[in-house]
Amino acid sequence: MSINKEANEFTAVVLAGGEGTRLSPLTHGHVKALLPVGNHAMLWYSLRWLSAGGYSKPIVITTETSQDEIGAWFNKAGGSTGSDPQFISVPDDADTAQALKA
């Protein structure tokens, strides 16, 4: 399988907000995107797979409530994802369309 080296023509967007109500009680007091799966946070897998596919500078959209926790996680463990994302936060009550407009 070959990796698309022209992937930088596009920008990947990861929606890392959301309350995770369907994952309750696992998300009680935790950001859904940072829940552990195996040895890593769920967000780590998204960023790692995007990086492996040539998308090393994705946009990660967070909510205002989760931005600090996600930023702290990335500063600590995000380097192993191979990506250099741009973080954008939207109001907690923003829907998917509003988040993508940001």
Give a written overview of the molecule.
With 102 residues, the chain is of the alpha/beta class. It has three helices and five strands; from the N terminus they run βββαβαβα. The chain has helices spanning 42-52, 67-77, 96-101, and strands at 13-15, 36-37, 40-41, 59-63, 86-90. It has a three-stranded parallel beta sheet. A hairpin with a 2-residue loop joins strand 2 and strand 3.
How would you describe this structure in keywords?
102 residues, alpha/beta, 3 helices, globular
Summarize it.
The chain is an alpha/beta fold. It has helices spanning 42-52, 67-77, 96-101; strands at 13-15, 36-37, 40-41, 59-63, 86-90. The chain is globular and about 35 Å long.
The percent range for strand residues is 15-25%
* Strand order, largest beta sheet: 1-4-5
Largest sheet: 3 strands, parallel
State the shape: globular
The structural class is: alpha/beta
What would you report as the Rg, rounded to the nearest angstrom?
Answer: 14 Å
Overall strand count: 5
Q: How many separate helices?
A: 3
What portion of residues is helical?
A: 25-40%
Distance between the termini: 34 Å
Series of H and E elements: EEEHEHEH
- Provide mean pLDDT, rounded: 86
Oligomer: single chain
Which regions contain 5 or more consecutive residues with pLDDT less than 50?
none
